[in-house]
Amino acid sequence: MVFVKIDFYEKGVCLFFSVSLFFMFLLPGKTEAQKTKKSKEAISNTPQLSDREYWATLLFKISYPVVHALSVDSLKATMPLETGKDYYLKADKVSHLEAVGRTAIGIAPWLSLPDDDSKEGKMRIQLRTELLKGLANAVDPSKADFLNFQKEQQPLVDAAFLAQAFLRAPSQLWTPLDTETKQRYIQTFKSLRDRKPGYNNWLLFAAMTETFLLYIGESYDPMRIDFAIKKTNEWYVGDGWYSDGEHFAMDYYNSFVIHPMLTDIMKVLSSKKLVSTDAYEKSMKRMTRYAEFQERSISPEGTYPVYGRSIAYRIGAFQVLAQASLNERLPEVVSGAQVRSALTKVMKNQFEATGTFDSKGWLQLGFAGHQPEAVDQYISTGSLYLCTVGFLPLGLPEANPFWSAPSAEWTSKKAWSGQPFKRDYKVDY
Fold first, then answer.
1. Within-domain flag for 96
2. How far is 243 from 328, CA to CA, in rounded Å?
3. Which residue among 87, 172, 214, 392 sits deepest, i.e. has the most Cβ atoms within 10 Å of its Cβ?
4. Is residue 429 part of a domain?
5. Helix, strand or coil, per DSSP, at residue 23
6. Distance of CA 390 to CAs 26, 216, 269, Å?
7. Domain that holds residue 4
């Protein structure tokens, strides 16, 4: 006899489903064929999550520990501080802000959807409500979770991710904050000007906080924005790829930072008529081209090349493909359904690997499971939450074709199974 055990683990309104099959005993007289038939029937009768339900449940599972702990002023008290080998930063000074900024940037589009009474809608309401409480705690000097923006270089990075989250969901994450909290963030972002960013993708971090100040009508430093845009464009090497500084690096930083931040900055500048529409469109076309490479890089099995820095950000490596989907700027030859199908497979490979989460639900160092030896020397627990940017298409409503269209095979799956697929050739913008 086969028993199906379904464990329901409830945090607020979200149900996490884990299905396990186990054999308790065999009834006399049952043939192997009969037992196999019953086993298959048990599996087939298990409720299956849709791709969207899977994404939403997984993103809630990832982000809930950070958001909830911050909301009750206990992030510093409860978040583990695991670090990579030869870690050289001060984890207790920077890792908590990393977790907050990197969680917020990924969940922001999802939280921007209208409220509803569905299970997913209740997850969004809970996360948004608790995140707003937590954001107030983060800049309140009287709170235990008052975060460090004032010292070290690393806050330049994660303040920028937080500012980008505000830009991605202004009505949900910025407007509802009380006046005092808003002023604290404004002054905090301005205080970052006493630190010089690195001469690489870090220029965009400095530009992002200033762009947010511009967006809300505050005084801003135009030089930090202008310099970042000019240098990034000078570092464009062609066919959708930017160099990270003067020297090209074969890694995922075009997706972790460069394309997403540049296009979000250019969008604000274009809306303020500080750059031309054509300049904004050029940055978007380059991002679309890079998204095409990203889609092709996912193997038929839902894996991708493990090269370059920061692979511990897991599916965050596909932020460009996710953002192009969210903005409905995918290449003509790439459908949302094939992106959804490919990324779902990648998520399952990474987040269902043993050891990806600890016993309390926090992410652990690694790529597919717990692999602390594989992470960079600047990576700590908080760093890992940049994986949330791989979930940006959850900001599209359920009726959007990205979610509603039937599953589809992605390019490499077509290519390696003998099906027709579009050949690739360079594009110049």
1. yes
2. 25
3. 392
4. no
5. strand
6. 44, 27, 25
7. 1-48
